[in-house]
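Before surveying the methods themselves, let us examine one representative protein, written as a sequence plus integers encoding its fold.
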Amino acid sequence: MIELSTAEAIVVASLREVFAQTDLPPPEVITGDTVLVGKDAVIDSLGVVSLIVEVEQRLETEHSISVVLANDKAMSQRNSPFRTVAILTEHLLSTAREATAQ
């Protein structure tokens, strides 16, 4: 089981990696309120896909937990689970909990 701080560190490190792989300028500070999807997003749609893959890979590599963040449940939600760093962190935690409970 991973903790909130660990999940947030995974998301932030993954976001930094996405910026390192693209020409997009990173924000000066990444917080829970950093917007990932929609108006004022710091990354484009391709960046979101890269971020999701990076988060999944880090979770698998560092914690041996295999998840699919862009699953049917996530895609059917009224509000995107990828909207901000904090929302993605919560989505990562709940998805990881479901994966480890099986």
